[in-house]
Amino acid sequence: MSAPVVLQVAASPVSPALVLRPWRMEDVAALVEVSRDPALRQWTSSVVDNDADGTRWVQAQQQGWAAGDRFGFAVLEAQPGSVRAQLVGNVVLKEVTSGKPAAEVGYWTAAHARGRGVASRALEALTSWAFDTFEADGLERPELLHQVDNLASCRVAQKSRYDFDSILPAASPSFPRDGHLHIRRTGA
To answer: Which of 12, 46, 78, 173 places its Cα 20 to 30 Å from the Cα of 85?
Structure first.
């Protein structure tokens, strides 16, 4: 993909508009700040403690775009009266391979933005983009995995029309507890 992809999510009566765009180095400070949240650290495998960690993380996202197999988006929310948007989350489509029917989606939401539908709205935009972009290459089913005790992720999956498929056994160290597999099929 040559041109940067920017996805827009319209405002709703209760939620501001969202912008999803590839991660940039200018996002490092905000990434480090939101990564201090203990709840976020509980569910993510990447640790971002400082600017060096944040820089490496953003570079990894950029490398995924360059390789064409991992597409991470910073999720930004417009702030009333501000020219800058605030970082509220991340969504990613990963393990994308031409001819392979499945790819994985993932997301996280900053503590200050939880409970406002950010994850489900951003995931819906990512899923639509994934089908539009990769269905011709064979993408049939984005898959969402989360640990069984992550009830918020289960709600996001349900809201985003990812149907529960199965329970996956733990796979330490990256997936230390059993998990749920949710699948969204073409046309769902």
So the answer is: 46
**Rounded CA separation 158/148 (Å):** 14
How much is the average pLDDT of 123-135? 96
- Could you tell me which residues come within 8 angstroms of residue 3 by beta carbon, excluding any fewer than 6 positions away? none
Distance between CA atoms of 186 and 188, rounded to whole angstroms?
6
**Please, are residues 58 and 31 in contact by the beta-carbon 8 Å criterion?**
yes
Tokens of 113: 């933005």
> Which run of H or of E encompasses 31?
helix 28-34
* 76, 84 contact by CB (below 8 A): no
* Structure-token pair, residue 172: 């330490």
Cis status of the peptide bond prior to 173, with omega within 30 of 0: yes
**Nearest C-alpha neighbor of 143 from the set 174, 88, 188, 80:** 188
Contact 141, 101 (CB under 8 A): yes
